[in-house]
Design goal:
By secondary structure, this protein is α/β, with parallel strands linked by helices. The chain has one domain: Fe-S hydro-lyase, tartrate dehydratase beta-type, catalytic domain (fumarase), CATH 3.20.130.10. The chain contains six helices and seven strands, in the order βαβαβαβαβαββα. Strands 2-3-4-5-7 form a five-stranded mixed barrel. α1 links the parallel β1 and β2. The two termini are 17 Å apart.
Length: 180
Amino acid sequence: MSETRKLTTPLGETDIRSLKAGDRVEITGTIYTARDMAHKRLCRAIANGDRLAFELNGAIIYFVGPTPAPPGRAVGAAGPTTSSRMDPFSPKLLENGLKAMIGKGYRGPEVREALKKYGAVHLSAIGGAGALLSRHITSAKIIAYDDLGTEAVRELKVVDFPAVVAYDAYGGNIFKESQK
């Protein structure tokens, strides 16, 4: 089994180019949450030339809508949602500097091509492990679209957040590799 790679945000070109499908990673720094409706609004803002609530260059978006925080915690359960639901929006975000996404499951061919074209990766987190993943989140604050409730865009501070490179910037695909 390969060594776990430590990543610190924001991600740079060297970080992305060093990752291969199947690599285990632990992320420390700032990541952002966004699900379907937030993605739609982010893409609309880009199309309108509006400034986003966070810098896309080098950023990571986690496809999650965390549950309310219990006492003493930054968030409640924070498990990934199905990645393919963001497929219509991901290429536009990648074109504008997004370097990584975290979710679960497959990505469509347009997203896989955009990962190669713009030098980015898609990471998978373990679905069903939201309570465990939330322990790696040290703070959370809403920074955009608070009307979306749990699906608002949040800025999360994470320490050693675990994930696996599902799709790399070279066309590598953990799902395809596991089928061999």
